[in-house]
Design brief:
homodimer; alpha+beta; Glycosyltransferase; Jelly Rolls; 14 helices; 37% helix; globular
Chain lengths: 525, 525
Amino acid sequence: MSNQAEFQAVRTTIVRNERFIWIADELKPGLFSEEVEPAQLARVEADDTAMHGWRAVRDAEIGSLESRELGKGQSVIADFGDHRVGYLSFEVRPVGSPPDAPLKLRMTFGEMPVEMAVPFASYDGSLSSSWLQEETLYVDVLPGKVSLPRRYSFRYVKLEVLDTSPKYRVSFFNLKCMTVTSADRANVIPFDHVDPLLRDIDRISVRTLEDCMQDVFEDGPKRDRRLWLGDLRLQALANYATFRNEALVKRCLYLFAGVSDERGRVSANLFIAPELIADDTYLFDYSLFFTVTLYDYYEATGDRDTLQELWPTARRQVELALERLDDSGIVRDEETWWSFIDWHESLNKQAPSHAVLIYALRRAIRLAEAVDCGSVGEFGRRLADAERAAVESLWDSEQGLFVSGEGRQVSWAAQIWMALAEVLPSEENRTLMRRLLSTKPDIAPTTPYMYHHLAEALLVVGLKDEAVDLVKQYWGGMLKNGADTFWELYDPGNPDFSPYGSPLINSYCHAWSCTPAYLIRRYGL
Amino acid sequence: MSNQAEFQAVRTTIVRNERFIWIADELKPGLFSEEVEPAQLARVEADDTAMHGWRAVRDAEIGSLESRELGKGQSVIADFGDHRVGYLSFEVRPVGSPPDAPLKLRMTFGEMPVEMAVPFASYDGSLSSSWLQEETLYVDVLPGKVSLPRRYSFRYVKLEVLDTSPKYRVSFFNLKCMTVTSADRANVIPFDHVDPLLRDIDRISVRTLEDCMQDVFEDGPKRDRRLWLGDLRLQALANYATFRNEALVKRCLYLFAGVSDERGRVSANLFIAPELIADDTYLFDYSLFFTVTLYDYYEATGDRDTLQELWPTARRQVELALERLDDSGIVRDEETWWSFIDWHESLNKQAPSHAVLIYALRRAIRLAEAVDCGSVGEFGRRLADAERAAVESLWDSEQGLFVSGEGRQVSWAAQIWMALAEVLPSEENRTLMRRLLSTKPDIAPTTPYMYHHLAEALLVVGLKDEAVDLVKQYWGGMLKNGADTFWELYDPGNPDFSPYGSPLINSYCHAWSCTPAYLIRRYGL
């Protein structure tokens, strides 16, 4: 997920817990590196049937790169064969007379063919153009070796000669990428599946998670590159089922707890460099996911010490969320981006947010029991109240669906989160999800993040076949459309959708999209 | 001077003299560094009366830089108060919310206001656009310090925020330049002059030379940055009268001699990095200037060892030039760029080149005498023949001027070089120059390089007042037009002249323009 200007900037005072930050620093992971060479040279072709209208096709074997002599205006695309996160280097030599002017070069990095085809200069989206991965650089001394200092997230890289001089051309060689990740592939729980599509979906999920695992769990290695709580929660779940890097989850929890605000609230996301900073974005659901992520962590590891130490922070998120309840006991709605839930522009956040509160409360109570905290009783009463209020105020018995906000909006998100929160008895919960699938409300999921919750809700109510179908259709759809890693955004009915106004800026390796590995393995799909 | 595509590329075999190259390497100078801060913030204003139509004016004191908060599309120009050659660094901090996207920044360096005003993207000249000094860079971590690895030649630098994000702006501070030169200011021969204009011209000449003195004598620190023989000869003369870095001249002579071709010919220019390479450009006059430069070096230093060792190379240039004489004993003319002389497009090179041969022969004979070489007699005869042929074939007694080429072109260059070569007896030589000044042929000097030879020719024939007037008008003209250092190109009648098609690419600190310090001091102007 990514910040936008519309997010409410809140002035707040951060209370640094130096012990928490010290513990997080101690847990900073080493990175695994691998030197990877391109698989082939590629070119992009316009193709209406391809994602965003562009397809990459084989141009030549990679061995032919060195023999290509490029002059002003000429370019070549190297295809690294799979998604890569790392550092690029290459060597370049002059061909012709001694170089009597510097080489001016543009390098364009792309996770998808569209990034190789559509000029970045045409970008006019809402997110900063500075996320578009390109470099313009000069090589003063030829032959020379260039090692780019920035990290890129890409499969394709275009080398474009902007200028040489009429007296020489250049050729490139030793092009390679030094990949980085804090995921240890040797530690992945082996997995196979009789269904080749689910096997592929699992493999790509694992790869997506791997490329997002860096100093912290990043949301996307191409863009944002930050630690978001909503993404962290899902990455942690996929991680327990695959790489089992529990220390990295612990680190991220301590980072969030290390910079809560004066009311004890954790931020929606953190900046890690040059120093730990809590972003001034606070989201109702994301703060609660601190509690949920701690719950999942404790379930996966049984690490009581961490639970003990972070419990006050986890409890506090629930207390603050409860303060938001109105007279009818429902989470107060607001015009601004007070809660995330999904990218859908018209989505009302009240009902799904209320469900997230119930979902988190339920888990907070189990944690309170584990640490023998006096909040158990109070939290139990509040949970019962919140559930009752949900049914009284948000349940539309005529439609048999939950409604949200003043406009009594019926959204997929509201039903999904109410199902995950298990507000209704088991049988009715299953009926709710069945009704959702049959009535198909207009306000539908727009992101893999929401589709994950849909799939898990189906599993929670026991609709496993429907969940399998969904995973195969949705994540399988990305796969069919050329995904090497799963995307930030994929709307099968509107494949060009970008909440930012351009598919160029979308992230095509995005943490919240990596959950099929968790769903498939955990629920035995 | 600078290579152009029209230069003839000649396939030739280089014979490396490892001893010469070793000696040159041993003489590689250390560089003097100084940390310089900008003098003020500036802005550029359109002004028809200013050079290239743009004037830089004070905008604010430099101390106000840090308080400027720049968002997307905003920029600031720092004025370093004088011409600088060196490395730029600055710090940048975010203002507003934590930076949720990289900072994308463009830096544009300019020796002249025009470079701050006219977008480089509009450049469409004949030289590579890669010489235009700009960088597009990303700062991923803020606050941050940026130290640019390339060397720039500039007075002005524009910092332009291409993108941040709607959540933050940036401010810059600690902007500075670490200058580099191999010229030791402490070693400059002190000089004063009662005429303030000549004093200023001398000062700017010295500064021009200083900024061109690096690992070698560069022709221009902004563009080309190479060791050209024609520039070296003039820089060496100015250097003897000012910085007295004789070792640097010696180094450059050994570099040229170290990579002559299989016939013993020295190249017009050398590339120094990543290794010594002789350019494939050979020019009749430039090769002869090796001999002349060795002569001047020996005159200035009395270094007999160097003379002895380099004499065979110096002699060889003369021998090769003599091979170019046709049946009438005149240097053979050609369509291509076989000899430089000046940038004038219509200039015929035959007569001035023949004069350069005579000029060089005369000095070669003195060197031959000094090393007691058997060539003395032969060279003496060839000199007499060349002088006689010049008078017989190139002297137009009706006009009282020398003519050049099949078209019998009357150019300033032909008269100037014939005067410098002292082909005519002393009194007639003075008459020749007087006639040149009064007849003003159309084919006039276009570069400071040619103007230098005009001034020195006036001094050689004893027209000192005319030489002083010329220096004050020509170099004083650049000064009046805002020169901090003297330029590669200045045509008072056509100030926008660029042989490359755009004043953006001209070099405004150019070695061949630094000679007034030599003329003023050596001839006591």
